[in-house]
Description:
Elements: H1 5-28, H2 34-58, H3 60-64, H4 83-101, H5 105-129, H6 135-158, H7 165-184, H8 189-192, E1 196-197, E2 200-201, H9 202-224, H10 238-245, H11 258-265, H12 288-305, H13 311-321, H14 339-343
Antiparallel strand pairs: 1-2
Transmembrane segments: 6-24, 36-54, 74-96, 108-129, 135-155, 167-186, 198-220
GO molecular function: phosphatidylglycerol-prolipoprotein diacylglyceryl transferase activity
Organism: Brevibacterium iodinum ATCC 49514
Amino acid sequence: MSFSPAWVVFTVLGIGLALWMTGIQWRARGGHKGDLWAITVVGLPAAIIGGRLGHLLSAPDTYFGPDGSPLRALAVWDGGFSFWGATILGLLSVWVLTRIQGIRLRPLLDSVAPGLILGHVAGAFSDWFDGRLELVTVLTESAWNLIACVVLIIVSKRLRLGYGQVFALYLCLFGLGRILLEALRIGTPAAEDARLLLGLPFNVWTAILALLLGLGWLIVSRLRHRTYETGVYMHGSRTLLRRHRRGKHTFEINAPNIAEAAAASGAPLPSVARVADPDDRASADVPVAAADDMEIERESDIDLSGRHSFGFFGAVTSAISIVPDVRGNSAPASHEENPQTSNK
């Protein structure tokens, strides 16, 4: 069975919805929208390759058997795609990228979760247009995914979920929904062609695994983390340092979670100086000299980070960074007043 044009259109629509919702959630957590472009450029091709590899591993005789043709494995347009293969390889590539760029993975997963389940809505209709699902199943799955998306957004705000807890809740809702949908598909041609494992379809087992994994993750994370997660970048993040150098970001959202570290060690809560804005030094909890030392140290880190880049985006951002600043964001003047000026 090959992919129809309607399948392609709704699949692209699902990807667009997922990116749109992820961008909203990521910016709400303090992230920059430019991070999503880099993640999409790396994660989307990896997900496509992973989905195809997962399909090839599930049906190797079709392509590599006695009557198979290995060249058909490259014919993606003929159909054959694994959701779990796309998820595993896509997440693996995103994890590698976040490690390189200094982005925290768990806040990113929390931002992706509502968009991911929203993209499933368009994905269900793409399967219906391709003749893989019944209309009743598609409508039920779409309604479930829409409700789950709203639940993720509301619960994450009300309970201030973080540390991957929103993504864990997504796994629970997704797994429970897949189990209910597989129950509705009993007796249909798709259910008869499904592979069985211990008397149950393979999709049911994967849904149960996702449900248990998400439930365990959510419980353990809620017990370990009592405070709200702050900051979506690692300390000294490459992507954040490059933006700060161009005046597009501050260090405040990259500050370490000192409250959580102090609570874990039993030490008193130390004070933190805000050095992102020189005008705020008068109200800082440390002397100005200490703040100057911290700023000089951070500027040295920025100089060391200049050699790092990320392919096309690194070249573009490097070219933009050498353009003179004409927006009036000049370097801040010194706070030491001229005695002659102060006497006037």
